[in-house]
Amino acid sequence: MQIVSVLNHKGGVGKTTLTANLGAGLAARGKKVLLIDLDPQASLSLSFFTSEEWSVLAGRTIKDWLVPDSGLDDMKPLISSPPRVNDRLGFSSGYLDMIVADNDLDQFNERAIARTAADPSTFAEVHDRLRHGLSMPAMAEYDIVLLDCSPGFDALGRSAVAACDLLLIPTRPDYLSTNGIQSLGKKIVDFVATFNSHRGKLSPVRRPAPSIVFTMVQMYGGRPIADQRPYMAQVVTPNLPAFESMMSDSKSVYGPAPNHGVPVVLGGLGRAQTRELREIVTELTERLENLVP
Ligand SMILES: Nc1ncnc2c1ncn2[C@@H]1O[C@H](COP(=O)(O)OP(=O)(O)OP(=O)(O)O)[C@@H](O)[C@H]1O
Ligand SMILES: [Mg+2]
Hints:
By secondary structure, the protein is of the alpha/beta class. The chain has 14 helices and eight strands. The chain has one domain: Rossmann fold (3-Layer(aba) Sandwich), CATH 3.40.50.300. It binds adenosine-5'-triphosphate and magnesium ion. Residues 1-197 form the AAA domain.
């Protein structure tokens, strides 16, 4: 199993849209995919389930694993199968499962702050809960787990970093979006160091391999417009590569998709956005194959 976090402390950059499309795209290629919604806004959950379906899942959300005293032995009872996307996947041997979010997921962040303030030596244990859950035999059926993080870098985001092998940072090619990337990198380095200094008997966390995926790119003649190219060049370094394929800006295509419960990547191939999303899925697959175990 390989675990990918989709994280950027900037809001509204396309994290959830990218996660939904990668998940569905990988499932269409025969992968057994688990999505976990780590955002109290529950946008990923509501991209696959109607609000009625989601409300029935109360008590079976990722909060029920992360916030203690739930009495669960593993995360298996929290897994749901979103119906519409799996219907669309049809005869693919892959499928898409999900653990949805809860609007009260912030309780995990609040408890993490309280616990680590009262006793700093609990830092690693607090941030290990998700990694621990994912490492259990009950999760072994999945090829790939995708973690959709909320904006910011709170205890939920840090837990995702502790758990993942690869970090995808969706970024809009503009001044404000690209500016924060360096500080995010520094926060991740600090987090990994703090975790490992308090890890006790836990295995050390390795810094996940990061990659940028440019989103909401304005294209002209098949290339990003000249205004956006300098921002792209500014953030990409040998240690922080970017996917060659990018998500073009198209509100009319991406806006309605969550309402249908089927991401754009599973749409008709005539659509430019479907093609570019499939290229992003291919690049992710290649990156995962090349990861050092
Ligand atoms: N490539 C795109 N082109 C145009 N609009 C997009 C694109 N990708 C996403 N959007 C739209 O932008 C909005 C924000 O997208 P999304 O929810 O994926 O961002 P996010 O980073 O997850 O936000 P948050 O930080 O709130 O979690 C949504 O309305 C979505 O439909
Ligand atoms: Mg989101």
